[in-house]
């Protein structure tokens, strides 16, 4: 079959909010903490960039 007939592969989520953690080892929990901290940092960086853009736009339109 052609490659186009295949479904796109979905990336497996490392962590899902609210999932049962009882079966995870300490190492797996630590890995998830690192991944979640990295994601928080990425989100904060994006939020800061959007805030800076909004502040610049607000300043530009207030001058007029």
Q: What would you say this structure looks like, in words?
A:
The N and C termini lie far apart (61 Å). The chain has 64 residues and is mostly helical. The model has no long low-confidence stretch (mean pLDDT 86). The radius of gyration is 20 Å and the shape is elongated. The chain is built from 1 helix and no strands. It has one helix at residues 26-63. The protein has a domain at 25-64.
Radius of gyration: 20 Å
How much strand? under 5%
Q: Outline, from the CA principal axes?
A: elongated
Largest sheet: none
Number of helices: 1
The secondary-structure element order is: H
- Span between termini: 61 Å
Helix content: 55-70%
If you average the pLDDT, what whole number results? 86
**Uncertain segments:** none
**Alpha-beta classification:** mainly alpha
How many β-strands, per DSSP?
Answer: 0
